[in-house]
Amino acid sequence: MVAATITAAVYLPVLTVSEISVEDLRPIILFTSLAVAAIGLMIARTALLPLKKIAAGSTQVARGNFRSEVCGGVINKSRLKKADEVSRALMTFELMRRRIVQLEENLDDSVKSKRLDVEEINDQLINKDMTLQRANAKLVGQHEELKRINAELASKNMELSQSNEKLQKLDKMKSDFILIAAHELRTPIQPILGSIHLAGKGLISNKEAWESIEQEAKQLSNVANYILDVGKIESGTFTYEMKPIELKLLIDGITSNSSKLASEDGIISIAKEVDRDDVVITGDKERLLQAFGTLSATR
To answer: pTM of this prediction?
Structure first.
């Protein structure tokens, strides 16, 4: 429109009213129309450029690309105020894009920070899991050790129980032995005292008294040997002297040393008579006499 005005201002002064005709105005009108169209096209392109940028930016945003800039420079209130509606829309879109980019960066930083925190927590969990595994392995070892100790304690308890039973048996044996020893010691002492008493009153001769005392003293000596034999039995050094023995002589020895073996109630009885005088057995005569003497004492 400006170009048409300028053209008209150039040509119109040259031509007079009388000289103007339709044929003369046709080029002017055509040139003016073309100028107006060119200026309109330029104005349209200038007005539509922000819209094209907004459309292109929207396409990139829709694709997830927030890094494509649609409007450069610093966007402030003064610039927004001076811009037309379309340019203001373009700058507003750019501000929105920049805000989204900033939020995305902040979100990335936050995600990275959280990822680092998660990795640190995961490392701590791994360390704790390894510590727990070591502790569990240690507990398993302690459990096995405890089982072994319990098994040993059970074995020791059994051994202790068996030892207690043996000790009880030994204690009973010692008690029985003390009773038997006391009886055996008392048995020869009474005849010795009786012989001394009778000899003192003149009821028996001194020779008879000494013979009785000698016999009972030998019995005391035997009792002392029996007591010593107990120690040999406990130490495992007790021995036997196995020899042929005539059965008749053994029976005579038993009846002469322990006259009380003939039981009054019939529980124990000894037959002194044998069918044959030549019956011989193998054994330790002293130990056999000792055994039968013990039977006499336990009654």
So the answer is: 0.34
